[in-house]
Amino acid sequence: MMQPEMPGKAVPEEAAKGIHNGPPGPLLKIVKDQRVAFVLVGGANTAFSTGLFIAVAWLYPGLPSPVVLSIAFVVSLVAVFFVYRKLVFRVEGHFWLDLGRFTLVNLTMFFTNMVLLLVAHEVIGYPKIPAQLVITCLTVIINYFGHRYFSFRRSPKLVSPKKATEESTP
């Protein structure tokens, strides 16, 4: 589907939404759908981050929840940024802008997670690991929309309707 930008020129609908403008990532050779690839990578990262949270909480039971969460957050943030950038979105340029936006989206998720975990564990007294599992399910939504529409956003490039149609054909 095309969205006209100027008379005689159009951009692919995904580019008009600012999703990305790079070639499909290598994961898409297997999965074929960027949304599915995003969910798979995000799910793997969520599992990794949650596993790291559990491991740190078990290894250092005296650490406050925010410290445990911070350790898991920083390690998984760096790892998943490169995975999304190379395997899913395959964007070029704007490395620092992408990293900044990516970090901003993740910090939004992180601070939401932090507040909810503090309330659930320190205030209400709910065990920190089950609380974190529930909170993770809630914060994934913020993460998904933030990365989809902000982190790897690119300005649409004007292309001819013929070229846009050719690029959007599988």
Helix-strand layout with pairing:
Elements lengths: L1 E5 L2 E4 H4 L11 H4 L2 H26 L5 H25 L5 H29 L4 H24 L9 H8 L2
Antiparallel strand pairs: 1-2
Helix pairs in contact: 3-4, 3-6, 4-5, 5-6
How do you describe this structure in short?
The protein has about 170 residues and is mainly alpha-helical. It has helices at about 15, 30, 35-60, 65-90, 95-125, 130-150, 160-170; strands at about 1-5, 10.
Question: What does it look like?
Answer:
The protein has helices at residues 13-16, 28-31, 34-59, 65-89, 95-123, 128-151, 161-168; strands spanning 2-6, 9-12. It has 170 residues and is mainly alpha-helical. Strands 1-2 form a two-stranded antiparallel sheet. A hairpin with a 2-residue loop joins strand 1 (2-6) and strand 2. Mean pLDDT is 78; it is low at 1-19 and 158-170.
Question: What are the key terms here?
Answer:
two-stranded antiparallel ribbon, disordered C terminus, 2 strands, disordered N terminus, 170 residues, 7 helices, mainly alpha, 5% strand
